[in-house]
Amino acid sequence: MGETSSAYDSGAKNISNRYVAGFLWMDKLGISAQYGYDIVIRQALYGGAYSLIDENMQPLPDFWLSYLFKKLVGRRSLEVSVTQNPGNIRVYASCSRIEEGVKPGAVTIYAMNLDPTSSARLQVTFNSTGTIYLLEPTDGTLTSPYVNINSQTMKLTNDSEIPPIPLKSQDYFELKPLTFGFFVLNEAKAVACI
């Protein structure tokens, strides 16, 4: 899929390049994966109100979402079912992208909680502890131009490098209200992913 984003005609100012746009972007990436698209090309890296980096060359929320998606999600999409609150929870899963430290059979779940007041705890059928990457708006508002990953504000280093992303491991995946994130199950041993 080519030249896509959260809006057309350069986007909606202070919306399309903010945290809130991540819900649509994650949904688009998840649906594209389900339909077998290997590549989704984002419009635009710089410029317009839907860019991935701002005028100071700092990454915006959709940059970090795209970075994690590329780093964690493999090419094979897996079937997922949501039994409670299916209108407020969107969940996708894929075999994990195999790179250093990731085992064959690993699964990456990526999800969003659209409920404005209640957290959502996702239970998985794999007996595996996972690594969480929870994305939240830095200032607590949906129109935040910056994002926290596991409570750390994400900005490039002074050398314009991507900083280390703080890791958090646990045996469940909880999404606070109006948040989205990734849950990597390195020990899932999913047969479809081996």
Overview of the structural elements:
The protein is α+β, with helices and mostly antiparallel strands and 194 residues long. 13% of the residues lie in helices and 26% in strands. The strands form 2 sheets. Strands 1, 2, 3, 5, 6, 7, 8 and 10 form an 8-stranded antiparallel beta sheet that branches. Helix 1 runs parallel beside helix 2 (61-72). The longest helix has 14 residues, at 21-34. It is globular. The two termini are 27 Å apart. The model has no long low-confidence stretch (mean pLDDT 90).
Task: Provide key terms for this protein.
eight-stranded antiparallel beta sheet, 26% strand
Provide a quick synopsis of the model.
The chain is an alpha+beta fold and 194 residues long. It is built from two helices and ten strands.
Radius of gyration: 16 Å
Give the oligomeric state of the chains in this entry, treating copies of one chain as homo and distinct chains as hetero: single chain
Uncertain stretches: none
Strand content: 25-35%
Largest sheet: 8 strands, antiparallel
Q: Which of globular, elongated, flat, extended, rod-shaped describes the shape?
A: globular
Category by helix and strand content: alpha+beta
Give average pLDDT, whole number. 90
Distance between the termini: 27 Å
Total strands: 10
Helix and strand run: HHEEEEEEEEEE
Q: How many helices in DSSP terms?
A: 2
Helical percentage = 10-25%
